[in-house]
Amino acid sequence: MVDTSKVIECPCGVILEGKGDDAVVVKAQEHAREVHEMELTSEQALAMARPA
Ligand SMILES: [Zn+2]
Q1: Cα of 25 to ligand 1 centre, how many Å?
Q2: What are 18-36's pLDDT values in tens digits?
């Protein structure tokens, strides 16, 4: 697991940033749950992640 910053850009335009894959995946899952009322799998979140 790499420990570099990753970002996930949500289709709604929100940029989620975290230190490492795990952190950004958790942020994306929380955002999806709170804002979009949908469950994002870690696989789905990781597929959207890119280096910051
Ligand atoms: Zn969103």
Answers
A1: 13
A2: 999 999 999 999 999 999 9
